[in-house]
Amino acid sequence: MMALAKRALEWEEEYGRQGFEKGLKQGLEQGEKRGIERGRAQGLERGLAAERELLRRQATRKFGAAIGDALVRYLAEVSDPDRLAGIGERIIDCGTGAELLGWLDANRDGDDAH
């Protein structure tokens, strides 16, 4: 009887250990997935921030600090990389800062048509 009770305790400990290891493994896998997703999101946001800063610098260089500063307000609303690229093309295409800001006002919905 004692041997059976001892064996039952050993089984309980073994199943508990297996359950703990399985739970730990699942938790680590889920944490890793969340970490990867969080890392991707942070990487995307850093990339967008760098793109916004580049566009601000380009507009400042071409049209002056006032236009560069005004552009920052527009860029803060943009999270689509293609939209940012379209704004970059507009910086090149526009002859004046007023033209650029006018185009941005007219195209706030994301329509990058020339």
Short description:
This protein is mainly α and 114 residues long. It has four helices and no strands.
Helices and strands, with pairings:
Blueprint: H1 2-63, H2 65-75, H3 81-93, H4 97-106
H and E order:
HHHH
Our Rg estimate from Cα atoms comes to 28 Å
- Contiguous low-pLDDT stretches (5 residues minimum) are none
Number of domains: 1
> Helix amount, in percent?
over 70%
Specify the overall morphology. rod-shaped
How many strands? 0
Distance between the amino and carboxyl termini: 88 Å
Number of helices: 4
- State mean pLDDT (0 to 100 scale): 87
Please state roughly what percent of the residues sit in beta strands, choosing from under 5%, 5-15%, 15-25%, 25-35%, 35-45% or over 45%: under 5%
Description:
The chain has 114 residues and is mostly helical. It has one domain (2-106). 84% of the residues lie in helices and 0% in strands. The protein is built from four helices and no strands. The chain has helices at 2-63, 65-75, 81-93, 97-106. α1 packs parallel to α3 and α2 (65-75) runs parallel beside α4. The radius of gyration is 28 Å and the shape is rod-shaped. The protein starts with a helix and ends in an 8-residue tail after the last helix.
Keywords for this structure?
single chain; 114 residues; mainly alpha
